Amino acid sequence: MTFSNDKAIYIQMADRLCDEIISGTYQDDGRIPSVREYAVLLQVNTNTAMKCYDQLARDEIIYNKRGLGYFVMPGAKQKIMAARRREFMEQTLPELFRNMRMLGIDIDDVRKAWEKDK
Fold it and tell me: Of all helices (H) and strands (E), which one includes residue 68?
């Protein structure tokens, strides 16, 4: 995985794991890779992977079964999608609208591009 400089690595790792939950790679109550496995997979320090898992556990996306590993919390996919929709509506759309106004792009232009992309 290639990391960017705009977010902490553990946050980018958490985002990736959330992407994998949304895409169905990991299901409710399904086991996810161990901290060590994920660290090796993404070529990061184990402490960074642990920080990622701690954050996801605090956010109630994953949970730990002592001695068995980490698992996806039931309803995690819906929770992630709701949070991302909120973020999109509150942060991405206002910036998009600002750029559209600045560039003279109207909603019909967007609709045509949307239909063309389907």
Answer: none
Q: In angstroms, what CA-CA distances link 15 with 12, 19, 103?
A: 5, 6, 31
Owner of token pair 């910036």: 95
CA distance linking residue 47 with residue 54, whole number of Å: 10
Q: What's the CA gap between 91 and 43, in Å, rounded? A: 31
Band (pLDDT 50/70/90 cuts) for residue 11 is very high
In degrees, rounded to 5, the angle at the alpha carbon of residue 66 between the alpha carbons of residues 21 and 73 is 25
Q: What tens digit of pLDDT does each residue of 66-108 get?
A: 999 999 999 999 999 999 999 999 999 999 999 999 999 999 9
CA distances from 39 to 10, 63, 114 (A): 10, 18, 38
Task: Show the tokens assigned to 49.
Answer: 């992977």
Helices (H), ranges, 3-118: 9-23, 35-42, 46-58, 76-87, 93-103, 107-117
Are 28 and 74 a contacting pair, CB within 8 Å?
Answer: yes
